[in-house]
Amino acid sequence: MQEIYGYELCRWKLVLVTVGVICSGGFLLLLLYWMPQWRVKATCKKTTLKDCEVVLLRTTDEFKIWFCAKVRVMPSLGASPLQNLDPIVHKVPNGHTVHFCESAAEENKNYLKKYLPVIVSGIRYFTHHSVKYFWNDSAQSFDVVRGLDDSTFCSSIHNEHSRGLTKEMRDYRKMFFGINEIAVKVPSIFKLLIKEVLNPFYIFQLFSVILWITDEYHYYALAIVIMSVLSIVSSLYTVRKQYVMLHDMVAAHSIVRVSVCRRNQEIEEILSTNLVPGDIMLIPSNGTIMPCDAVLLSGTCIVNESMLTGESVPVTKINLPNPSEYPKATGDEIYSPEAHKRHTLFCGTSVIQTRFYTGELVKALVVRTGFNTAKGQLVRSILYPKPTDFKLYRDAYWFLLSLVVVAGIGFIYTIVNSILNEVSHTIVIESLDIITITVPPALPAAMTAGIVYAQRRLKKIGIFCISPQRINICGQLNLVCFDKTGTLTEDGLDLWGIQRVENARFLLPEERACSESLLKSEFIACMATCHSLTKIEGELSGDPLDLKMFEAIGWILEEATEEETALHNRIMPTVVRPSKQLFPESKQATDQEMELFELSTTYEIGIVRQFPFSSVLQRMCVIARILGEKRMDAYMKGAPEVIASLCKQETVPVDFESVLEEYTKQGFRVIALAHRKLESKLTWHKVQTINRDAIESNMDFMGLIIMQNKLKQETPTVLEDLHKANIRTVMVTGDNMLTAISVARDCGMILPQDKVIIAEALPPKDGQAARINWHYADTLTRCTSSSPAINSEDIPVKLVHESLEDLQMTKYHFAMNGKSFAVILEHFQDLVPKLVLHGTVFARMAPDQKTQLVEALQNVDYYVGMCGDGANDCGALKRAHGGISLSELEASVASPFTSRTPSISCVPKLIREGRAALITSFCVFKFMALYSIIQYISVTLLYSILSNLGDHQFLFIDLAIILVVVFTMSLNPAWKELVARRPPSGLISGPLLCSVLSQIIICLVFQTVGFLWVKQQPWFERWTPESDACNILDATNISSAHSGNETLDDEHNIKNYENTTLFFISSFQYLIVAIVFSKGKPFRQPCYKNFLFVTSVVVLYVFLFFIMLHPSELIDTSFELVCVPYEWRLRILIIVIVNAIVSVLMEEAVDRLGVCFLSSLFGYREKTPKAKYMHLAQELLVDPEWPPKPRTTTEAKVPSQENGSYQIITLT
Known about the structure:
With about 1200 residues, the chain is α+β, with helices and mostly antiparallel strands. Among the domains are: about 190-250; about 260-385, Distorted Sandwich (Calcium-transporting ATPase, cytoplasmic transduction domain A); about 390-445 and about 920-1020 and about 1055-1160, Calcium-transporting ATPase, transmembrane domain; about 495-580 and about 600-710, Calcium-transporting ATPase, cytoplasmic domain N (3-Layer(aba) Sandwich), CATH 3.40.1110.10. The strands form seven sheets. The chain has a twelve-stranded mixed sheet with strand order 19-39-38-37-20-32-36-35-33-34-40-41, with helices on both faces. The protein starts with a strand and ends with a strand. It is an enzyme of class 7 (translocase).
């Protein structure tokens, strides 16, 4: 959602801005480039959207990001792309027909002038994030131009749109919809360079470099230029590489040649870029890559949708039924690609095979093109991602702002000091120089180092990352949602057994389904036909569950070839039959007897019509006919509760629920089967067009298939590690709820002693309000009429914990299915936070409900991770703070992280690396803050005596110390295990601020002590080339020989005793704080295991000790140091040692006592926790009505009532 405002160009404002740009030397232009809202407001005046020339857009989320776009005018014959052009075209003089081109070429302009009388006034539009928005006069707003996926009825698709388009209509629509292409334009290197260079930080660096060159800091300026160039080149290479990769992925199959059927039945071959909504596309029999979203009008297609779903299992797509052909149809409905996805071929998916009638081609109606397609929306989400909202990055801006404030103070101090000392020639340069000292130029490189190293370590352990900024956020994850099948449990299911029903009674479970006695039973016929299996290159392919079921009965599947289909005037059915080994054969049979036997045992079933499995309906159905039978049969399989509700009640066993519960509590996956004999009047063609609802009713319940889904070996261990680390785990699955609860108990997600409360929500019905019935999963079967009283042991105990983080470990869990979750979201908004606080099992969840659950958890301030195998999890993987796909397919492009090994062991590894990267970021921030302040203190003290640090001194500090230390201190690997404590989420926290402030004070004190103490020395004097504090000048000749040059070289007064003292002290301080801030356990390995860091620090210490205690004339000359007595060097050493001891002890004290100290110092009272879920957990501890008691009902109140939105009623 976005707010939109209209503006038109204002000439006098434009003149003023031009003058301002010239006067500011172009800085105003840069400011307006960075702030689009200022740019529009400064050059335009507000007007209505109808008359505007520029639109200003602002997102309505928490980020409030501004965009601007120019409004353009397009000449057109009509106001809507889907309107009928016939009445307009008839008005064209001389009966000519108008043809339109995409580009506004000269010939097209001349052509438009020729037919100007017929052209409606131009249509106004603008483009934003690759989508066109056209002016809607009736709604008085700009709207996205929609294809046939918006407000088009299914009957209209068949009756009006199935005839195709004329070329004139195609050209007209193309003006609105544009080229059918998901164009990921790879920007030129020049454009990327300009965009990168105009980054505020690089502009600041350019300003700094100019200033340093003016001040003759040539070496440092050159070093910063080299570092900036390397940074820009690296950034350009990375960004361009990502664009090229995305472009190649999208463009691989985006342009193909397709055949379209025109309105005059003429078949035309065109490029897919010329397709528009309304075109009839012919799907070739050997398959194709879909270049658009299209709805299937005739025939059947087998499609691989791995690009969108992450699931490489072939999906069967059937033609969209025509409601007008159903006399008994419930009514026409609006077509929706999501609701009718079993009839929709999505862009980017691969059509493997087609099946068709003779003489009738497989046709699909184009409904969406370009960026409006499902694939286009996925690419847009990658091209224009939602900003990552993380406290660390928000606090980073405050950190920089605080440095700017400090720089401002130094700026004012320098000006005042220069005026007081009557120094005018350097006042501007030195006052500006203090700003460049305070804001460190190496900050961006330093911040990205830790993330880059973490990304490399993740790659080594098989976790690939396409969004590096998410690594830090993963360090904060405190809740992880897991898909069940294929994630917590093994991918494949094994058939445990079957339990048939006869005369509405369950028979004993049977282990084998391929016995001779069951060969021709309706139960086995259902197992043989009710699936979506197909043969691809001779191999059976399809859903793993269907494969296991079909393999268990030992039947053979045969599909009609194209030649066989061509001989008939209808689709040849897929045929299934038992293998010969299943029939009892006589050992001594003659040839004649054998022939008779083969004839008698010819038992085949043809699958006439298939209604594919729908996750919404939770079932699939087929219509089949046994060879030689006149009547057809309908077979259905799916979720037991759903199947039982569609069967005749007299065929469902009385103990159905208890038997089902027994299986699901043991963790089995249960599938129910049903059968119905269809009426003899149903002909082949009627079956092809009949409504699904007409078939799926009044079925006979046949029994259950029991599948075993084993836990993955590593699942319990990984979940135990997460629980020990106080990370909540939640199961989100499409499976049965009791099965999910059983698996949750088996894997340790729900502990044996914990209670599970099932929330069964019912929507409003017959005037009754929506309600939630509360049941306790373990007591459902125990509650009998003889014991109506509630056992006190069944009510969960509320535990009061010392740590708020432990509140999530309470003794009860909520479980609910997708239907209940939907009702609660709609009618019980106030209950949602309470339920997600303790919700552990969410079963029968549709893909969009998984995303809604992730959002609900984020709304109560959880940092949510999502781990799924890619199938149906794409939305949730994208929405979570850290989405980890266990599928390496193309759909993983939507997930920030992808694991090469399909195991949840990647989750704790990712969190450990995230925590290490986050702590590294804090260490770097703290170190860079201290680096700036230490240098700021040194320079400020030296400014007081009109001195400064030398060029080579700056160079040594910034390059040899700072860069080396920053890039090596970030190399600490992650700690080997997850701990219960999480790192802080932001820079602005008590202990962290206390740590930084205490180190700043220590550095300030010891530098000031050194600065003042050196002045108290008996040998101290204002240094001149003739000064001889070390008593080494025994000849005046030497002095006079060098005096002229020294004076000439030291016009900035660099050489003095104060400078030398502060240089040594501050150089050691950088290394001291680097060691102090290089935290190891519990989130990173200790710094002594970081070989490069230890080596760098040791080498720098040795070098500094050497030049301080054993001065070398060459080094002293290079660094512009002066000779001081050896006793003073030893005193500097004492200052450094005491500084190091105090710094280490202070940091240790802050680590252990920081929070208590701050609380007592500032008189902090215990505050309400910041996270909403912790605050809510505190409230629920004292709420006598929570958790709900067994056998109670929560009713939604009618809107007229004021207090609350629900009430609790105890049922008797």
